[in-house]
């Protein structure tokens, strides 16, 4: 089990409890993981459990785990590298997700993409 996930399981972080939240299960799982990311429990560059492992750890289906991961990816909170895994993304110092920065001008979008490519290079090197 991953160190950050062990902290969650040990009671330092509330465990994932889908019955306590309204909405689709994948949204609940994504919100739970987003909470761990924004609280700093899951730090930038931390490898998330594989989607199949999430099914075991959180008691959800593979489709639910995939939807939750995709939702986090669209929000700019995680980066998936084929054959390497899904990692917590580095967030800008403003606290806004990288996707939010790309919503501005074309120049802002180009800068965000350039920044994410250098981040990907760091992941691929490590």
UniProtKB/TrEMBL annotation:
Its Gene Ontology biological processes?
negative regulation of DNA-templated transcription
GO MF annotation list: DNA binding; DNA-binding transcription factor activity
The answer to whether keyword Transcription applies is: yes
Please report the stretch or stretches of sequence annotated as the HTH gntR-type domain. 23-91
The record ties this protein, via SMART domains, to:
HTH_GNTR
Q: Which domain of life is it from?
A: Bacteria
Cite a single Pfam family from the UniProt record.
GntR
Q: Supply the alphabetized keyword list.
A: DNA-binding, Transcription, Transcription regulation
Q: Where is this region: Disordered?
A: 1-20, 97-126
Xref: PROSITE patterns: HTH_GNTR (PS50949)
Cite the PANTHER family for this sequence: GNTR-FAMILY TRANSCRIPTIONAL REGULATOR (PTHR44846:SF17), MANNOSYL-D-GLYCERATE TRANSPORT/METABOLISM SYSTEM REPRESSOR MNGR-RELATED (PTHR44846)
Task: Write the protein's name.
Answer: HTH gntR-type domain-containing protein
């Amino acid at each position: 089990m991953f160190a950050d996930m062990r902290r969650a399981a040990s009671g330092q972080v509330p465990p994932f409890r889908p019955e306590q939240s309204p909405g689709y299960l994948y949204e609940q799982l994504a919100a739970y993981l987003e909470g761990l990311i924004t609280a700093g429990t899951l730090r930038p560059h931390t490898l998330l459990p594989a989607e199949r492992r999430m099914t075991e750890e959180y008691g959800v289906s593979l489709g639910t785990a995939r939807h939750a991961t995709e939702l986090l990816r669209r929000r700019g909170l995680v980066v998936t590298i084929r054959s390497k895994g899904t990692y917590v993304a580095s967030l800008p110092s403003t606290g806004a997700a990288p996707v939010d920065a790309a919503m501005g001008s074309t120049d802002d979008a180009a800068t965000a993409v350039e920044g994410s490519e250098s981040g990907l290079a760091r992941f691929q090197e490590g």
